[in-house]
Amino acid sequence: MGELKRVFTTFVAYLKRPDLYPELGRKILKNTVNRNNAFKGKEKTNFWARSKAISQRDAITKLFGVSTFSFESSYREILDYAVQREKECPIKMGGPGALELIYYACEFSQAKNVVETGVAYGWSSLASLLSLEKRNGILYSSDMPYLGQNGDQYVGYVVPENLKRNWKLFRFADKESLPKIFVENKIFDVIHYDSDKSYNGMSWAYSELYSHLRSGGVFISDDIGDNSAYQDFCEKNHIETTIIEMDNKFVGIFIK
Fold first, then answer.
1. Side-chain-facing half-sphere of 46: CA atoms under 13 Å
2. DSSP character string of 117-143
3. What is the side-by-side strand order in the sheet with 113-117?
4. Better-predicted residue by pLDDT, 251 or 16
């Protein structure tokens, strides 16, 4: 009964937001007609990813030439603040991911414009913003509202107020947010994907985002083991990618 109540509450919340009707239609299709799409090619990709996977630190050294890792020590106070903020948050969202990878990708590319999909507490946003503030750069984020959870007010909860001046948050599904973001800025130095994990959703977003990544820019995607969208995209575009294994999940990264 709890699950039915959650679904009903979310559906009603969608009905109150006409701007989200396109995403509601996609979700209905995804959970009915395209129900198996989320895990398409999962077994194949997990075998492929596991055979190539290295640690986050090895990947940073290999791709960015960083041999001394000062991220955690340099930002200890800010990271401790973020941990405390997450503990205080009354709703549960996604936790920290490959923060060092994101930060050093921004440092390597001397990023001034970064786009990410998926925000939740804002851990990945924080990692990007800590680098971007040095160059007065901008982080453009796409994040769906937390419908039915009263969670909108907590999106980006771990990001300190002083960093938010370098942040533009678009509260729609990727198919609505990304076109709006690309109107504001067309070329990006770093891309970080962490939103819709269905095969179709990832395939569509990868193609759109890749076309807006500059040569020499860095592309990062979380949860590439959920299906074969990332592997298929890399093989189709002849991309040599690095795979990172973290907490029994895989992250993909390459330099364009």
1. 10
2. E--TT-HHHHHHHHHHGGGT-EEEEE-
3. 167-170, 138-142, 113-117, 188-193, 213-221, 249-255, 242-246
4. 251
33 backbone φψ class: left, alpha, beta (φ>0; ψ -120 to 50): alpha
CB 2 within 8 A of CB 151: no
Structure confidence by residue, pLDDT tens digits, 207-241: 999 999 999 999 999 999 999 999 999 999 999 99
- The reported pTM is 0.91
Whose CA is closest to 74, among 131, 132, 113? 131
Question: Which residues touch 106 (CB under 8 Å, ≥6 apart)?
Answer: 114, 127, 128, 131, 132, 189, 190
3-state secondary structure of 13: helix
What is the C-alpha separation between 188 and 217, in angstroms, rounded? 7
Structure tokens at 152: 């909108």
CB 171 within 8 A of CB 145: yes
Instruction: Please state at what angle helix 199-210 crosses helix 174-184, rounded to 10 degrees.
Output: 10
DSSP category for residue 20? G
What's the angle, vertex CA 143, arms to CA 137 and CA 144, rounded to 5?
165
Distance set, CA 227 to CA 67, 89, 192, 224, 243 (Å): 32, 31, 17, 7, 14
How does DSSP classify residue 59? H
113: enclosing H helix or E strand: strand 113-117
Tokens matching residue 80: 């401790």
Q: Which amino acid is at 121?
A: Y
